[in-house]
């Protein structure tokens, strides 16, 4: 609050005489300050006779506010870390949604490491409710900066459309919470289905509901509090409640004062039919990321379902979800029109996280791959240069005194790279956003005027990484990637599925 310009009129001698009044004012202002604090909104709701969060605090229904959503049940989760991790969570979320017969809320693409989980192996992770709140807060930042792009805009969800119901986050929040999301839209269809109230109180209520910071709302929200420190989700393994083989060691227990253990739990028994979560309109998970560690999965261990053919089909479909057609077409175009020759792709992750300490191993792998390619070319009596596409987070200006600089100067190699500002990338981004795959791939309300176009478009997203991965999928001389990089894993999966044919 701004202070008055004439602060000098508050004399020291008058402070004592006005002290009771000041105290009285502070006492009166305290409830008001708490009212506007999302942290204390739940406490006040229990102390005072405000309407519950499910009614929005204003008499308006907030838990499925639109009649369009009547009878629908949803699953929401908190993505985090880099894009490849976010895609991994999307796959697990699709399986969970199919298992629990819920409509999957498809989130936006978050900035790289804007939301961080922590470490499951070290039993140091962000609480699920705090993680969901962080995702909401970052999503609102993307909205305000007009940088919103849905995971469904980047990843082609059509392979699972017939077996997993989905709804775009913008559409869901607009209908379920009644808030205005049109600033997160690029084209007319999204604008038409993402309108609502722009009052701050509406956004705060929606944040409380989606995060579960206000606790469970019967018939409305069931926030899942189990995380990778205590739980590994399974299905049809007949070991519900059994101890997982990976547990915190004694030293970690003493150091971190850990008293809990990890158990394997059947996700359907815990959250499906007959459970407390069954009647909730929204089932809110924290992270759904998982990875192998010491013979176990860190959180989500559902890879096959021989007894349930529908779920088995979902598991097979989500094993590989390609990029949107516009991105795949751009990669093929660059390979065909720019490189034109058979080429090698090198993915070199050198600056991010742990990878900045492993340059020697990364460059060593590239050297070995180049030797193998050259030998193969000699066997085929090919005396031309090795054409190589380089995707790296190290800017060319910083290649000096690195192995990359040596390769760039060597006439035996012809290098190709892409930049975010290249015409191909920019044109692809514009076509991609105009297609509105994220909104079109999921639930759409029937009672909306789809001709309405009353919002300015968001910024074009940065899609260089996705186009580069698409180019690498076309590398007929092979691929070499940074060990441990999820990006390298994504490219290997694309190549395994032979997505590039030209």
Automatic annotation (TrEMBL):
It comes from the Eukaryota. PANTHER family: O-FUCOSYLTRANSFERASE 30. This is O-fucosyltransferase family protein. It comes from Digitaria exilis. The lineage of its organism: Eukaryota, Viridiplantae, Streptophyta, Embryophyta, Tracheophyta.
